[in-house]
Amino acid sequence: MADVKLSNIKKSYGDTPVLHGIDLDIKHGEFVVLVGASGCGKSTLLRLIAGLEDISSGELHIGDQQVNALAPAQRGIAMVFQSYALYPHMTVFKNMSYGLKIAGKGKDFIDAKVREAARILHIDHLLERLPRELSGGQRQRVAIGRAIVRDPNVFLFDEPLSNLDAALRVKTRVEIGKLHKELGATIIYVTHDQVEAMTLGDKIVVMNQGRVEQCGSPLELYQHPATRFVGGFIGSPKMNFIDGKVAALGGDHIEIQLSNGCRSRACVEAGDLKVGDPVTLGVRPEHIDERSDAGTMLSGDVTLVERLGEASFIYLTLSDGTEIVVRGSGESTVTTSEHIKVSFAPHNAHVFDSNDRALRRLKAGNVHSTAELAQLKAVGQEAF
Amino acid sequence: MISLPGLKHNTGKTLMTHAVLLTYTVIALFPILVIIVNAFKSRKAIFKDPLALPSLDSFSLAGFEQVLGRADFGLYFGNSMIVTLISLFFVLLFGAMAAWALTEYKFRGNLFLAVLIAMGIMIPIRLGTVSILNLMASLDLVNTLTALVLVYIAQGLPLAVFILSEFIRQVPKELKEAARCDNVSEYKIFFTIILPLIRPAMATVAVFTMIPIWNDLWFPLILAPGESTQTITLGVQQFIGQYVTDWNAVLSSLTLAIVPVLVLYVIFSRQLIRGLTSGAVK
Ligand SMILES: Nc1ncnc2c1ncn2[C@@H]1O[C@H](COP(=O)(O)OP(=O)(O)O)[C@@H](O)[C@H]1O
Ligand SMILES: [Mg+2]
After folding, report:
1. Which of A188, B69, B76, B80 is the most exposed place for a label (fewest CB within 10 A)?
2. Among A85, A103, A96, A100, which residue's Cα sits nearest to residue A121?
3. What is the pLDDT of residues A250-274, one digit of tens each?
4. Which residue of A has its CA nearest to B185?
């Protein structure tokens, strides 16, 4: 069993703090994805867990052992590097077996282990080649194979797919997901790609500027982003944000006077908000309807339409200059510079207070039946 | 014909480059060629026309017979080989180890040591000849090959550390980290991962280190002029007398002295061609 527990982990390079107190609980067998913009400290955190950098303060436990002072090899981890870091002068077999050889394992044992890993990763036929004779995807597998043979308690992946082309990335992503099921090991996976994070993670940790912004299951993050940053980070295209002020407080909703002059209803808990407080309304492009009868209505000029086939992304500029994106249907006939009306339902609205913290949504993610939808739509229209 | 101005220009440029390089090669190789050519001529022919190739008349192996006939030639040759190879080995070993330590580890005095070693490149070791001689005398090492080896190691190290540091710095950080995750000890990382990767640089350093040692006359003359410790460059001098010089012998022994360096150079230069870390990352 290897739970990983981080308590108030901090890291500074010289006088520059990079991580400001990270707390994280990772259960054995969990697939945890660290995600965040470039430079937010994901790799640094991973390297701290691996033991490649010293922890400035805080405690790191792997299993029931405090491992702050242990060398990488004693922590029971294996790391797959973004650049793969294969030993260029060793064959694939030697690359994969080197760690075991150093550990003094028997020849037969090593052979069996390497062949088993090679079989899982479909690289059996490449064992005698040098890294330079492999394609990017194959090198990637060898790097994973080198980690597998060591039977680690925890796998650490640092952006393993970022050097692959788009098609291979999707394929390898799926395979890493399968591999996790097959190995049943704990995986900590770093990426800046939110699609990778959403598809792979049991648990996603969104990081921002050296802090954990939010930690939860993919759907939790999507439906209940705790901060404006998470709201904007998870989901593609980005969530739309419109500034406003609290206009009225209801029992199960609040009303917001938006900066473009519209008034919107949002099904969120008011908390200690007062009328007149500045808030930001967030609504995802896929939750805005091209028709104008879903609830709150917004109108604006179309500045661009991106047609993807299955959907069209319509870029709108509202009357006050706020820009929003709407995910319209693939057959949408909207054209640039047209003036259109779009709308969204109040249960799809997110509201962030002046500190960018989200207000608890009351009806998110549990709306399924058309009857419910119709009812909610009615509530939304009531607002006007 | 389609005229390609770009191509034409390039051809002109290539020709120019080749002309310059060829001129340089001729100038550089000419003295060596003269030595080798004359080594195979009789004494009279050498003086009559130094630039002529050996003909049936003038061909003579007298010089070689004389040189090889003397028992001590083998000894000088051996001394040179021993001194060069042992110095070379330690310069490469210590140079690489120092370069690795200076680039990989942060410790007190790191910068100071690096600067000190860099100064060794700029200040010729011969400036310290008197002190070195005193030192060797106190250590009782005068007229031993050990004295030469020690001096040559000191002479070769600065440049070796300098060049190898540059190359070691280029080895991707992740490779060392991957090895550390594999529980490879720091010594093993150095010997099994870093050294194989900087082999081309080692070959370069080997060539640069070897040639001045093999050719050196100064330190053998001062530190080890004894009969049993003379190196080949010093040994050749005995054919150069104050009144009479045995040119046949001098030229023949110089010709013979070229051979081992040439062999070593060929060995090292095969390493030079290989790529550094191709396939390591990406
Ligand atoms: N060795 C280092 N010395 C100084 N600063 C560093 C070092 N490594 C990383 N940093 C800084 O730490 C921050 C986080 O880096 P990193 O963890 O690599 O980000 P990410 O992987 O999320 O893109 C960056 O601002 C980077 O400049
Ligand atoms: Mg990174």
Report:
1. B69
2. A96
3. 888 899 999 988 899 999 998 888 8
4. A102
